[in-house]
C-alpha cells in the first residue's frame, strides 16, 4: 500500500512553511498578476551590517510584492526569517513602511489595496538598535493609516514566530492568521528565561511555549482570527477571504478597557490553565473577539 493511499491529503499538500519568504509572498497572488518592488537587483542593503563584520543581503531580508489577490489589488510584505532572524532594520523597515504608505495612497484615491504582512521575525535588529526601533514605529504608524481604508492582514506561518516590536504591528492589524506551528508574543521564551529566570519560564519546555505563544492558543483566546493548516492552497484561500472582507467597525487594539478588565479578573494565585483561558476569553457573549 502506498503512502498516498494512507494519508493522501497530508502527502499531497504543498507546505507553505517550507517556502522562503519570497516564494511565500508570491504564492498568495493570482497567477501572472504580481511583480516585485525594490527587488535584490536594486541592492538596497543595510549600510550598518558590514561595519560590524556581518554580510548584508541585497533585499535586506524584506520582500515587497504587488499584484492581485482574488481579483483585488494587494501588496504583500515578507520578512525573511532565514536572514538575521527576520529582524527589522533601517532598510527593511523603510521598505515595509513605504509599501504600506503606497497602499494607503492608492486606497484613498479609490483603488482599495489590501496589505499582507508575512512576519517571521524576532523584532528589532540589534545591530541597528535605535534605527530598528524607529522603523517599528513607522511601520505601526503606516498600518494605522491604511486599515481605515483597506484590510491589513498579518500572516504568521513558520516556527521563527513573531516577537518583539513587530508583534505590536501584528496587534494593530485588521486580521491575524496563524498556523499551528507559528508563535506570537511580545517577548520570546528565551528572552523571558534570560530576564526572569528558568523558574518563571523554561524555554526548553516546548509544551509550555505552544500553550502560551502557539497559533492554536492565540486563536483560541481570540487574539488571532484564523488557524490554518500548513498548506499553500488553504492559506491562500484564507488570505483571499480577508482581502475581500468588509472593513471592521472596531479593531482589537481599540478595545483597551475590555482587555484591562480581563487581565484584572485573572486569578494569579495559581497557575492559569491555557484551556480554561481560551474558554473564558473567547466568549462571544462578552464581545471582544476582534
From TrEMBL:
Keywords: Lyase, Transferase
Domain CoA carboxyltransferase N-terminal: 1-251
Organism expressing this protein natively: Tunturiibacter psychrotolerans
GO BP terms in the entry: carbohydrate metabolic process; fatty acid biosynthetic process; malonyl-CoA biosynthetic process
The keyword DNA-binding is assigned to this record: no
Gene3D superfamilies: 2-enoyl-CoA Hydratase, Chain A, domain 1
EC number: 4.1.1.88
Coiled coil segments of this chain: none
GO molecular function terms listed in the Swiss-Prot or TrEMBL record: acetyl-CoA carboxylase activity; carboxy-lyase activity; transferase activity
Top-level taxon: Bacteria
Family annotation (NCBIfam families): malonate_beta (TIGR03133), PRK07189.1 (NF005530)
Protein name: Biotin-independent malonate decarboxylase subunit beta
Enzyme class: lyase
Amino acid at each position: 500500500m502506498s503512502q498516498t493511499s494512507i494519508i493522501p491529503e497530508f502527502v499531497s499538500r504543498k507546505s507553505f512553511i517550507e517556502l522562503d519568504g519570497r516564494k511565500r509572498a508570491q504564492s498568495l497572488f493570482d497567477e501572472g498578476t504580481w511583480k516585485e518592488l525594490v527587488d535584490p537587483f536594486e541592492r538596497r542593503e543595510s549600510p550598518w551590517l558590514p561595519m560590524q563584520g556581518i554580510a548584508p543581503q541585497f533585499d535586506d531580508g524584506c520582500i515587497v510584492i504587488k499584484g492581485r489577490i482574488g481579483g483585488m489589488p494587494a501588496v504583500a510584505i515578507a520578512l525573511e526569517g532565514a536572514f538575521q532572524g527576520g529582524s527589522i532594520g533601517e532598510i527593511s523597515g523603510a521598505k515595509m513602511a513605504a509599501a504600506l504608505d503606497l497602499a494607503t495612497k492608492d486606497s484613498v484615491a479609490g483603488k482599495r489595496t489590501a496589505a499582507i504582512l508575512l512576519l517571521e521575525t524576532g523584532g528589532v535588529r540589534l545591530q541597528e538598535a535605535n534605527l530598528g526601533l524607529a522603523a517599528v514605529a513607522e511601520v505601526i504608524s503606516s498600518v494605522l493609516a491604511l486599515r481605515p481604508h483597506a484590510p491589513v492582514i498579518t500572516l504568521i506561518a513558520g516556527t521563527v514566530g513573531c516577537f518583539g516590536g513587530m508583534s505590536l504591528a501584528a496587534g494593530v492589524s485588521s486580521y491575524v492568521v496563524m498556523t499551528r506551528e507559528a508563535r506570537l508574543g511580545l517577548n520570546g521564551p528565551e528572552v523571558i528565561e534570560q530576564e526572569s529566570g528558568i523558574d518563571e519560564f523554561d524555554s526548553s519546555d516546548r509544551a509550555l511555549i505552544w500553550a502560551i505563544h502557539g497559533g492554536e492558543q492565540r486563536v483560541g483566546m481570540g487574539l488571532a482570527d484564523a488557524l490554518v493548516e500548513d498548506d499553500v492552497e488553504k492559506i491562500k484561500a484564507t488570505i483571499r477571504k480577508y482581502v475581500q472582507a468588509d472593513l471592521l467597525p472596531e479593531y482589537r487594539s481599540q478595545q483597551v478597557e475590555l482587555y484591562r478588565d480581563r487581565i484584572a479578573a485573572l486569578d494569579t494565585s495559581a497557575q492559569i490553565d491555557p484551556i480554561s483561558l481560551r474558554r473564558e476569553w473567547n466568549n462571544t457573549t462578552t464581545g471582544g473577539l476582534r
